[in-house]
Amino acid sequence: MKNNFTMSNWELPTLAQYLIEERRRYPESIGELNSLLLDIGCACKVISKMLGYMSLCTELSDVSTEINVQGESQKALDVLSNETFIEATQRSGNLVAIVSEEMEEPYVIPKNLAQGKYLLVHDPLDGSSNIDVNAGVGSIFSVFRAPEDVIEGRRPVSKEDFLQPGKQQIAAGYAIYGPSTMLVLTVGRGVHGFTLEPYTGEFRLTHPNMQVHKATNEFAINASNSRFWEAPVKRYIDECLSGSLGPRGKDFNMRWVASMVAEAHRILIRGGVFMYPRDSKNPEKQGRLRLLYEASPIAMLMENAGGMCSTGYGPIHDVEPEQVHQRIGVIFGSAEEVSLIESYHHNTEDQSSYEESPLFAVRGLFRK
Ligand code: F6P
Asked: Name one GO molecular function term (predicted).
């Protein structure tokens, strides 16, 4: 009998082999994108290792926190993961600059290193509040092309060069550090999942052509925010909670991991809908999640896997960013559910009538 646990899965293409095959489709390409994606894969391997022995290493398990540019606590591992992304990607001559959740200003590739044509945006450790409890976290990334005059060296790169809508992404993906480490990637032709195989240290293609199921009976939302939700969101959740007795005529399950990467991965594997909608909790903010390095990459992945990603009012990929750390309401996953939620946002009658819904009325389950 073949011992699957001690032998490498030689028959499964590695990330490098997959990227080389993809590149054959673009004879004019010189391999810079591939090189960048392999560097990102390398960063993710290092972060995966760091997470693996975190509790054994005082430096890594340090939970003393700084406040980052988002006004959120920053753990030692957030900082180290950010440094890992920079170190792994800055030396190959593929990049011009990097925007990260952990840095207020873009990191410009130093002049003594070769410059390339891409801009990298990333959240090096998403869901990091889960670190202390040893639960799922991930890294999210996305690649844009820099403007031509920047590539040609006619002017320095600026913050504004990153303000590109999601539909201009060249590639996007995430790594999830769960029981196994996976890298899930799109370069615009499907979504492919690679599992880190310990014997060779390679990411191997275990999940080709991932597809989001069209229909689902699973939703994920932080229900503690229900009193701040807009009427269309209240209506949708109310209908899910009414289950087989309500207008949907079927029972739903709820999930909340508090790590968007983990929720996105679950949805790519078995369907579902995730919502962190715009709400009235912090009226000055448009939402909780960041447009450039959280919502946009997930939108590219969802759409390449047959799912949808919306603000509630329209596709995330059309939103023109105004700031690099801008936040936005995000709803993604199974196309049937996201379309339904969008239709509730477009139906203004629902908005007012739903304030009176039994679940949100004075004695309701999610009382306003
Ligand atoms: O980046 C923000 C994040 O950690 C997401 O991964 C996650 O979906 C969300 O915050 C969790 O938010 P909350 O703390 O409101 O549950």
From this structure: fructose 1,6-bisphosphate 1-phosphatase activity
